[in-house]
C-alpha cells in the first residue's frame, strides 16, 4: 500500500506534466496571514443559491456571505431563529408571523453602501422573488439612452429567473402571500397548513437579500449584478472572484454575531479530487472538500497532522425508470432490474465505504426514518431476475450525466457496473454519456430518449418532503428533478396529508406508508447514501460539518506551527 510520501511523489509528477493554465495561481503570502484556504470543486458554484440547480451543494455561499431566517436544529424537524428572532404559527396553521432581529447590517462593499439596517422589506422582497412576484421592482419608464436592446432583454430575463429548488417543492402553491406588518415583523399566509414551510425557510437556498441593493441595481437596469456581486449579512463578504479559479472572502467587520477570528478566506475551486490532495500536501489548502475517497486510508497514518471528518448526508444516488417508455411500465420488469444490481459492490468500488447501501428513499439521517419498518426489499438476486428477464431480449438505453456530484463521484464507472450486472441477466444496456446542458435541452423539448437514467438528489433540509416531492411527485413530472416522470396520485395524497400534521409522529406514519408505496411500485432503485467528507490540517480548530456539507468559517481558528494561536 502506498504511504503519504509515495502518494505525494506521484501527484507531484502529474502536476509537473500539466500545463500551468489549468491550475489557479498560488495564493499571495499576504492573504495567508490570518487566512485560511479551502479547496473544493466548481460544479454548481453560484453566488445566488436561489437560482442554482436544485440538488447542488451551496455551502460556500450560504453559510458565509448570507444569513437565513432560520437554521435547522440538530437533525430534527425544529428550526432555530437566525435573522428571525421569534415566530408564531396560528392555531389553524395557515399564518406564520415572524419577528425579525434588529441591528443587523448589510455588507459595505466597493459596489454598494447600505443606508439602513436589515428589516422586513428585505424578507418580503427575498421571498416574493422566489415566488415570482416582482412588485418590489418597479418598471422604469425612462430607460437609459445608452442601453442596448440586447442589454435590456438580458436584464428583463433576469427578472424572470427560475428558482429550481422552490419550483421543485412547488412553493407557489404553498404560500399565498408575504407581507410586512411592521418594520420588523413579517406575515406569511399559506393556502393550507404545511408543516414543512419553516424547514424550507431554513434550507441553504432561502437566503435573504438587501431590497435596497436590488432597487439600486434595478434603477440602473443592472439587476443581473444581484447574483454576481453579492451583498448579504453574513460573517464574510466577497472581495474578488476569478471564474473557476478562486474566490476571496474577507471578514465582515460589522457582523451582528461574534466577530470571526480568521480575516481572509480563500476558496480554491480550480482543481480535481487528486489535484486538491496535491495542494493539501503542499500546504496550499488547510481544508479539502470532496477528496479522492480511494486515498482516504493514507490519512490514518498520521492523526497528529490530519483531521478526517465525515458525517451521514441527506442525499441519495439512484437509478430511475422512464415511465414514458412503454416497457418501463411493467412492474415485474422493474423489480427484476432492481434485483439485478449489486449495490454492495457499487458502494465498495465507487465510494470505498464512504457510503452505505440505501435501505430506503429517505436517508437514514432524517428524523422521518423508522428502521424497523422502512427497508427497500429488492436485494441482489440475479438468479431470480434472470428467470424474468433472460427471454425478453431487452435492449435498453441508460443515460448518465458525466458530472461528479456529492451523491456520485464516478458516474461513468457506476453506469458501467450496472451495465455489467444487467448483462449477466440477459439485458443489453447501451450507456450514453450526456452533459447537464444536453439533458436540460432534451427535457425542455420533450425529446429525452432514455429507458433508464442514473441520477441522484441532495436535500436542503431533514424534512422528508424535500426529498420525496421533488423526485417523485406528480407536480414535478416532466421536470429535471423527477427524471422517472412518475406520477401516482395515491402517493401524492400521502405526502400532501403528511404536511397537514404538525406532530412528527403523525407525519412519520404518513411517510412510512408513502415509502412503502414506492417500494411496491419501484419507480426508482435507491443505490447509496453518501457520507460528507472533509480533510483538514490539524491546526484548524472549531471545524464542524453539517449533513449538507456546510461548515461555518466564522467558528474556525487556525493555530500556528507548534500549536500556538
Automatic annotation (TrEMBL):
<dbReference type="InterPro" id="IPR039424">
    <property type="entry name" value="SBP_5"/>
</dbReference>
<dbReference type="GO" id="GO:0030288">
    <property type="term" value="C:outer membrane-bounded periplasmic space"/>
</dbReference>
<dbReference type="GO" id="GO:0043190">
    <property type="term" value="C:ATP-binding cassette (ABC) transporter complex"/>
</dbReference>
<protein>
    <submittedName>
        <fullName>ABC transporter substrate-binding protein</fullName>
    </submittedName>
</protein>
<dbReference type="GO" id="GO:0015833">
    <property type="term" value="P:peptide transport"/>
</dbReference>
<dbReference type="InterPro" id="IPR023765">
    <property type="entry name" value="SBP_5_CS"/>
</dbReference>
<dbReference type="InterPro" id="IPR030678">
    <property type="entry name" value="Peptide/Ni-bd"/>
</dbReference>
<feature type="domain" description="Solute-binding protein family 5">
    <location>
        <begin position="78"/>
        <end position="478"/>
    </location>
</feature>
<dbReference type="GO" id="GO:1904680">
    <property type="term" value="F:peptide transmembrane transporter activity"/>
</dbReference>
<keyword id="KW-0732">Signal</keyword>
<comment type="similarity">
    <text>Belongs to the bacterial solute-binding protein 5 family.</text>
</comment>
<dbReference type="Pfam" id="PF00496">
    <property type="entry name" value="SBP_bac_5"/>
</dbReference>
<feature type="signal peptide">
    <location>
        <begin position="1"/>
        <end position="23"/>
    </location>
</feature>
<dbReference type="InterPro" id="IPR000914">
    <property type="entry name" value="SBP_5_dom"/>
</dbReference>
Amino acid at each position: 500500500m502506498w504511504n503519504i510520501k509515495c502518494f505525494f511523489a506521484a501527484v507531484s509528477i502529474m502536476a509537473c506534466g500539466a500545463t500551468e493554465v489549468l491550475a489557479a495561481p498560488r495564493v499571495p503570502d499576504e492573504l495567508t496571514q490570518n487566512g485560511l484556504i479551502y479547496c473544493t470543486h466548481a460544479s454548481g458554484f453560484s453566488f445566488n443559491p436561489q437560482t442554482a440547480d436544485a440538488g447542488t451543494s451551496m455551502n460556500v455561499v450560504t453559510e458565509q456571505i448570507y444569513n437565513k431566517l432560520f437554521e435547522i436544529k440538530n437533525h430534527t424537524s425544529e428550526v432555530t431563529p437566525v435573522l428571525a428572532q421569534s415566530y408564531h404559527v396560528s392555531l389553524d396553521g395557515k399564518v406564520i408571523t415572524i419577528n425579525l432581529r434588529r441591528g443587523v447590517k448589510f455588507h459595505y462593499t466597493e459596489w454598494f453602501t447600505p443606508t439602513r439596517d436589515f428589516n422586513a422589506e428585505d424578507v418580503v422582497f427575498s421571498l416574493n422573488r422566489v415566488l415570482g412576484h416582482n412588485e418590489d421592482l418597479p418598471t422604469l419608464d425612462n430607460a437609459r439612452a445608452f442601453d442596448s436592446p440586447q442589454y435590456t432583454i438580458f436584464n428583463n430575463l433576469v427578472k424572470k429567473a427560475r428558482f429550481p429548488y422552490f419550483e421543485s417543492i412547488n412553493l407557489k402553491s404553498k404560500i399565498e402571500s408575504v407581507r410586512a406588518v411592521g418594520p420588523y415583523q413579517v406575515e406569511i399566509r399559506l393556502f393550507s397548513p404545511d408543516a414543512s414551510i419553516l424547514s424550507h425557510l431554513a434550507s441553504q437556498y432561502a437566503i435573504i437579500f438587501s431590497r435596497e441593493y436590488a432597487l439600486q441595481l434595478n434603477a440602473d437596469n443592472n439587476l443581473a449584478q444581484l447574483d454576481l456581486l453579492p451583498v448579504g449579512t453574513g460573517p464574510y463578504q466577497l472581495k474578488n472572484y476569478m471564474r473557476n479559479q478562486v474566490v476571496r472572502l474577507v471578514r465582515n467587520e460589522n457582523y451582528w454575531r461574534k466577530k470571526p477570528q480568521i480575516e481572509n478566506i480563500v476558496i480554491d475551486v480550480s482543481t480535481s479530487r487528486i489535484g486538491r490532495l496535491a495542494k493539501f500536501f503542499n500546504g496550499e489548502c488547510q481544508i479539502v472538500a470532496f477528496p479522492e475517497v480511494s486515498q482516504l486510508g493514507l490519512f490514518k497514518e498520521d492523526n497528529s497532522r490530519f483531521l478526517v471528518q465525515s458525517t451521514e448526508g441527506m442525499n441519495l444516488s439512484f437509478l430511475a425508470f422512464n415511465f414514458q417508455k412503454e416497457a418501463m411500465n411493467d412492474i415485474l420488469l422493474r423489480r427484476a432490474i432492481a434485483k439485478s444490481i449489486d449495490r454492495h459492490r457499487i458502494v465498495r468500488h465507487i465510494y470505498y465505504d464512504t457510503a452505505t447501501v440505501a435501505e430506503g428513499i429517505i436517508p437514514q439521517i432524517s428524523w422521518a426514518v423508522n428502521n424497523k419498518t422502512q427497508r427497500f426489499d429488492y436485494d441482489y438476486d440475479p438468479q431470480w431476475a434472470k428467470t424474468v428477464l433472460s427471454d425478453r431480449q431487452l435492449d435498453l438505453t441508460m443515460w448518465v450525466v458525466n458530472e461528479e456530484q456529492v451523491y456520485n463521484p464516478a458516474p461513468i464507472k457506476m453506469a458501467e457496473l450496472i451495465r455489467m450486472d444487467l448483462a449477466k441477466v440477459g439485458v443489453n444496456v447501451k450507456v450514453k454519456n450526456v452533459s447537464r446542458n444536453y439533458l436540460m435541452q432534451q427535457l425542455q423539448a420533450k425529446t429525452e430518449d432514455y429507458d433508464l437514467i442514473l441520477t441522484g438528489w441532495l436535500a436542503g433540509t431533514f424534512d422528508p418532503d424535500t426529498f420525496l416531492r421533488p423526485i417523485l411527485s406528480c407536480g414535478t413530472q416532466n421536470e429535471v428533478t423527477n427524471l422517472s416522470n412518475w406520477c401516482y396520485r395515491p402517493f401524492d395524497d400521502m405526502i400532501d396529508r403528511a404536511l397537514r400534521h404538525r406532530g412528527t409522529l403523525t407525519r412519520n406514519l404518513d411517510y412510512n406508508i408513502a415509502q412503502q408505496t414506492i417500494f411496491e411500485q419501484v419507480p426508482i432503485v435507491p443505490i447509496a447514501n453518501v457520507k460528507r467528507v472533509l480533510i483538514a490540517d490539524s491546526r484548524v480548530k472549531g471545524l464542524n460539518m453539517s449533513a449538507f456539507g456546510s461548515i461555518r468559517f466564522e467558528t474556525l481558528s487556525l493555530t500556528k506551527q507548534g500549536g500556538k494561536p
